[in-house]
DNA sequence: GATGAATGAGGGTTCATTCAT
DNA sequence: TATGAATGAACCCTCATTCAT
């Protein structure tokens, strides 16, 4: 889902190409593309955009510099492609808790747990920092990241709440706002602490559970009929 | 309050110096120091740490390169000084609402308004991005920023809540957590949107008011006896 | 002889490499390496270590700055490589006179002539100045230069004298000292004059011959049985 | 003796000036001039011309930058003045052994000892290195140093030898050459070793004595009637 | 006359990008 | 097509020199 159209088209062209000539056209081999992005991920996320050198990426990816420039016009485009992919994988499998029926509180807690665990993991925090750090210079990048990542999550939550309202389980005057509140209650405290590096070790599962439970309960006290 | 003693002492020395000899010692003229920091602010906050060049700052500050290096040992120290100042001004005059007595709800709303307005202003958002962007590489910097900024705010809120509890106005099982929740409820939605540049125009005063009011009410519904 | 093994091995690897792929690996093309050193020689020897700028060398060598830094980690290493090479060529073919049998006086005069001519040549004097000028700051460099250059020569002379003693041709109480004396007698006067630039034009062949002959005769008067 | 005329003239002007107004004219106070040179000596001789910074000298001399530039037009001229002075003091009190009458051998040994001790002392070696290092770039400086230092010594030795010949104590075909030979025999071995930093600790008094004695004896064996 | 804060050209070095192989 | 050696602009920083105080 949320398939990346650019890549899909590229994939198709590539497949056709492969069938015809047995070898992908320049800049069209999806395996090599992936290999480059994987190398780029290691380097970009660990060092940030500017401190990462194309040579580092070359080494991490195990391809030559020329090849990278066949697949990506420049450093910035490579970075954007990476962020695109990060965003895609980052928010995968986050919303299953909201899809299953069952008790509202249980669902919200399960979702909150998944969300908090994911979004405060070192890997994801580093990726977010990298995006935030660059988005003064490449504003679309941050916007696109938010739009295709957190915003999607927000919509899922809103849909869930709407559904619960329809079922008479909740009474919410402003669903959009309530969805934001729920998310932020689940991340209370540690999101910014991790983002700024005030905390280096992740919150433990127990801590997340306590925070999420408390957050969901605050939420429900406010919005339960 | 939260005055930076180092600077104060430097200021005093410098004033004495100025009176005595009419010219500030090297690296001791607070006006020039401020001029440099102001130039640095423009450049660093617009471009981020790495993309900002000392030449750019030179130009923006209207001083020569050598002069900058008299006042700051290197790029990093200049950046830290800037962030230190940003942090200081950023969180100034934020907590008066919590100090006055009066209705709890009113106080929280007034505080929430001030906080949200400040923290989502373009200026402050850009500064936060810059810090977040660098803190993979200079982790202490982000930690220090958080510790001396948001954390202080958190403590003020916690103290306020404790006081209200002592007065029997609130019933809160975990004050620390509740303080985080309050803050995040006041920023619900727009903080991350601004941080990632999904929103470019600030939230209008009305929107902030609505969000903060709703947030505070959620909070009070949960914690009022 | 006194071949530098490191370079030899590098040369071999490089040749194999060249045969295999037609293009030398980064920092492995001996022609380019030589080209850089040749440029460095002009600049370093004319201006001394500090006054020589990498830009000057870039220009003199006809390669780009980046390329120099592929072959040599920094200015100092480039300089050391140059000195190493200077030393190697400087003392080449100096000792043949000592290896052939024949009359002791003739051998010593032939050696003295070769030594004096070489060591007071403008090229070699300039190189020595450059080394001497830096060796307050990079002491190992001067020490290494002496150890692998003049000291080797000293040992050759000492060996020759020992041999002559064994044959009963000379009677020397302190061979080490005598070897130094012989060398210095052959350079009497002009070595320091050239080193300090008091003399700019080299000593003519006749002058060298006179000095060396006189020096050797003083030496032999003292040490002939 | 060998008074530096520039300074003498300056001194005179300065004295007149002092008498007239009680305060030296700009750039005319010999005590301040000396103070600057003394600071410069520490810095230049320890670090070499290029690595020495005017700020270092400022600090070492305890005068302001502006003052230095009143007394010396630029770094180079200050350096030259220093070298001039070094040269002057360096060869002071070296020739007394040659002036007293007495046994030729004793005189030569005493002179040789003084010469070798002085010229291989760390201080003097460092000064020589500094001069040699710069004299590719400022050729007159090295030439002048030689001319007013070592060359003077050479002339003293030559005069002594001439005198001894006149007295029938020596038989020397080429007095100039013999004078050089004597000097170099006294420095045999350690001069170059020290110059190149192959030896760091000075030759001990005993070693000098042995070398000088042996050198003088070689010399006398050759030139005694 | 003396001071030292300010200047800015130029230092060594890095690295995104190109293009011959 | 893929490679990586080569390029050179731009980086941060130093320091000889000037000139307002």
Polypeptide structure, described:
4 copies of one chain form a homotetramer. By secondary structure, chain A is mainly alpha-helical. The first copy, chain A, has helices spanning 5-21, 30-47, 54-61, 65-71, 75-90, 96-99, 104-119, 122-134, 139-148, 150-166, 175-186, 190-195, 205-223. In chain A, helix 5 runs parallel beside helix 9 and helix 11 (175-186) runs antiparallel to helix 13. The model of chain A is unreliable at 1-12 and 14-23 (pLDDT under 50). Chains in contact: A-B, C-D. At the C-D interface, helix 2, helix 8, helix 9, helix 11 and helix 12 of C face helix 8, helix 9, helix 11, helix 12 and helix 13 of D. The structure holds a DNA duplex (21 and 21 nucleotides).
Span between termini of chain A: 35 Å
Strand content of chain A: under 5%
Radius of gyration over C-alpha positions of chain A, nearest whole angstrom: 20 Å
Biggest sheet overview of chain A? none
Secondary structural class of chain A: mainly alpha
| Number of distinct beta strands of chain A | 0
* Low-confidence parts of chain A: 1-12, 14-23
Biggest chain pair interface: C-D, 54 and 54 residues
Described by its quaternary structure, the protein is homotetramer
What is the overall number of helices of chain A? 13
Helix share bin of chain A: over 70%
What descriptors fit this protein?
homotetramer, 225 residues, mainly alpha, 13 helices, 0% strand, elongated, DNA-binding
């Amino acid at each position: 889902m949320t398939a990346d159209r650019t890549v899909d088209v590229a994939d198709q062209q590539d497949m056709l190409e492969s069938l015809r000539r047995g070898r992908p056209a320049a800049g069209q081999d999806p395996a090599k593309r992936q290999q480059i992005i994987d190398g780029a991920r290691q380097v970009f996320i660990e060092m940030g955009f500017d401190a990462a050198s194309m040579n580092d990426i070359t080494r991490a990816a195990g391809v030559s510099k020329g090849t990278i420039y066949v697949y990506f016009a420049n450093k910035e485009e490579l970075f954007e492609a990476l962020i695109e992919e990060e965003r895609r994988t980052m928010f995968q499998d986050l919303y299953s808790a909201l899809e299953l029926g069952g008790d509202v509180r249980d669902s919200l807690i399960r979702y909150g747990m998944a969300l908090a665990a994911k979004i405060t993991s070192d890997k994801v925090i580093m990726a977010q920092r990298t995006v935030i750090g660059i988005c003064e210079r490449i504003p679309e990048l941050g916007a696109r990241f938010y739009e295709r990542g957190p915003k999607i999550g927000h919509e899922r939550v809103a849909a869930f709440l709407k559904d619960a309202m329809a079922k008479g389980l909740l009474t919410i005057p402003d669903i959009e706002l309530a969805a934001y509140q729920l998310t932020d209650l689940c991340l209370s405290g540690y999101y910014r602490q991790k983002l700024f590096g005030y905390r280096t070790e992740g919150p433990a599962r127990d801590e997340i559970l306590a925070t999420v439970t408390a957050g969901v309960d605050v939420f429900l006290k406010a919005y339960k009929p």
